[in-house]
Design a protein that fits this description.
Helix Hairpins; elongated; about 40% helix; about 450 residues; 2 domains; 12 helices
């Protein structure tokens, strides 16, 4: 959410920021709604002041036994009361109109973010390690996993449809080992606090981190059965099958929950509607959770394999900072995610995303891309984003600096530390052997019960 005061003070700068994202100017529409609201507030304040004044005059008129004047004042107060009530109803509508438009405008890019329309304009910051010395034609992860007999897309499809997978045996253990290794690294070496958060959240929680309302179609909604407006009775089986028919795209439905698309949602909202002690910041949280994404806009992309799934696992990193700390914290968070790949001896590069490739809530993002020999390409394995106070305004998350009475909005940052499924993919492709087995990276051997190779 944007600071309406900053838009009032410098609408040209606001529109210039949106232009860098390839968006048309929006300050005029925002300020028109804001002006209507402010004019109404002035009228309400004037009416309330006159109502208070007239109420006092009624007593004075009665004391003078001027009943005609008292009756006239009482009629005026009654009329003012009706006008104020109607005005307050209009105020709520105008406030909602301002908030609705602000809620759909993305964050303004930081000044050092490169301009560009898409990923072609992203800037490589560094490249670490080297490609593995594979002296045979490398296979992609899904071919390796299926040949091992431990990666089953067909069984998952029978249960859940496309974009799901069943991992078995050594690969299932490898996935668990990767997550444990990441959590130990982030908590023991980098000072993150491990959290086990809810996987189901309400509308306002998703709104706080900007998944709603713009990305409604990319999420999985869960409705309480008793709240569904329609259902079909399956009389033959004697059971009750519930089918939702009406999905209203609005925020505020108390009967609806959402499966989190990332633990960023739960971890960032830990500080929603709070006033924090500025001396105790930054807060650093990490969590290993399943994540759920509808991938509504990904038709035809990565249809084979584990790169783009409806359900996947991720170790998330979230930081809550003061504005003065956020730039340094962004670099630190990115280095924490990079360290996972260094310890796994995986070749990667770190990219600074351009204005046209950044996420909605981000003001600056680093993508970490790991090398996949089977695909002969770098693929994203982590995004580390600084959101400034954009999410904090939506969550009303503040802090109080030492010695000050006033409060300020915190800054929020989030990053993958890393995506567990994609890390598994990277290990399969980079550690594959000529016989189709997978060597276990040294860093993961303590978590694999001594296993050093995954074979059929």
């Amino acid at each position: 959410m944007h600071d309406i005061k900053l838009i009032r003070d410098d609408p040209a700068a606001f529109d210039a920021g949106l232009k860098r994202r390839g968006l048309p100017p929006q300050s005029a529409e925002v300020l028109k709604r804001d002006a209507d609201l402010r004019a109404l507030l002035v009228r309400l304040q004037t009416a309330q002041a006159r109502r208070n004044e007239a109420s006092k005059l009624i007593g004075q008129a009665k004391a003078k036994k001027d009943e005609a004047q008292a009756q006239a004042l009482m009629a005026e107060v009654a009329g003012l009361k009706d006008d104020i009530q109607k005005g307050e109803d209009e105020q709520r509508k105008l406030e909602a109109a301002v908030n609705d438009i602000l809620a759909t405008i993305p964050n303004i890019p930081a000044s050092d973010v490169p301009d560009g329309a898409d990923e072609k304009a992203n800037r490589e910051i560094r490249r670490v390690g080297s490609k593995p010395g594979i002296n045979f034609k490398p296979k992609e992860h899904f071919d390796l996993g299926e040949k091992l007999g431990q990666m089953d897309f067909e069984a998952a499809a029978r249960m859940s449809g496309s974009r799901f997978v069943v991992l078995k045996g050594g690969l299932a253990r490898l996935e668990r080992a990767i997550a444990q290794f990441m959590l130990d690294l982030h908590t023991e070496h980098f000072g993150y606090t491990e959290v086990s958060p809810p996987l189901l959240v309400r509308d306002q929680t998703m709104f706080g981190t900007a998944q709603l309302p713009k990305f409604f179609d990319d999420q999985f909604a869960v409705y309480i059965p008793s709240a569904l407006e329609e259902h079909i009775e399956d009389e033959e089986d004697g059971g009750r099958v519930l089918y939702p028919f009406k999905f209203e795209k609005k925020v505020g439905d108390s009967d609806r929950y959402w499966l989190i698309p990332t633990a960023e949602v739960s971890l960032t909202n830990l500080v929603r509607e709070q006033i924090l002690d500025g001396d105790k910041l930054p807060f650093r949280f990490t969590a290993f959770t399943p994540c759920f994404r509808a991938e509504a806009g990904a038709a035809g992309k990565d249809t084979r394999g584990m790169i783009r799934m409806h359900q996947f696992s991720k170790v998330e990193l979230v930081s809550i900072t003061t504005p003065e700390q956020s730039a340094e914290e962004h670099e630190r968070m990115t280095s924490c995610a990079e360290e996972v790949l260094k310890r796994l001896n995986l070749h990667f590069r770190t990219m600074l995303l351009c204005t046209g490739d950044m996420g909605f809530a981000s003001k600056k993002t680093y993508d970490i891309e790991v090398w996949l020999p089977g695909q002969d390409a770098f693929r994203e394995i982590s995004s580390c984003s600084s959101c400034g106070d954009f999410q904090a305004r939506r969550m009303n998350a503040r802090y109080r600096p030492q010695g000050e009475k006033s409060t300020r909005f915190v800054h929020t940052l989030n990053g993958s530390g890393l995506a567990v499924g994609r890390t598994l993919v990277a290990i399969l492709e980079n550690y594959q052997q000529a016989d189709g087995s997978i060597a276990v990276p040294d860093a993961l051997k303590p978590y694999m019960g001594g296993m050093d190779r995954i074979a059929p």
